Amino acid sequence: MVVQVSTCVDKAMKQQFDKVCEVIGVSPSNALSILIRGVISHNGIPHNMMMPSADGLKMSREAVFGCMRGQFQMTDDFDAPLEDFKEYME
Question: For residue 73, what are the CA distances in angstroms to 12, 32, 63, 76, 82?
Fold first, then answer.
């Protein structure tokens, strides 16, 4: 089931938000859905959120150690030699 979420923001802020969404190629609705998923996934505000530059259009990202924690899973045999290279390992 899908529910509607609404909030009130300053008109200028909404216009800037719409402009940034347009520049990065995502609808405002999808951008908010991405934020909601990120908050749920991180059990808080994601640390790797992009911050706008002074003009509000160019995006920069500050690297945050551990920001991808829990996003990738490795198998137990990750460090095991690959069969394709077995002849070179002997």
Answer: 42, 26, 21, 10, 18
Per the structure, the count of domains in the chain is 1
| Beta pairing, strands 59-60 & 51-52 | antiparallel
Mean pLDDT by 10 residues, the chain (90 residues): 90 92 90 89 75 52 68 81 79
Does the residue 2 lie in any domain?
A: no
* Structural domain includes residue 3: no
Residue (of 65, 37, 60, 33) closest to 49 by Cα position? 60
- Domain encompassing residue 73: 11-89
Q: Is the pTM for the entire model greater than 0.70?
A: no
| Residue that is written with structure tokens 């992009």 in the block | 50
How many of the other CB atoms lie within 10 Å of CB of 32? 15
Q: With respect to residue 5, please indicate whether it lies within any of the assigned structural domains.
A: no
The per-residue pLDDT for 58 is: 52
- Is residue 1 included in any domain, yes or no? no
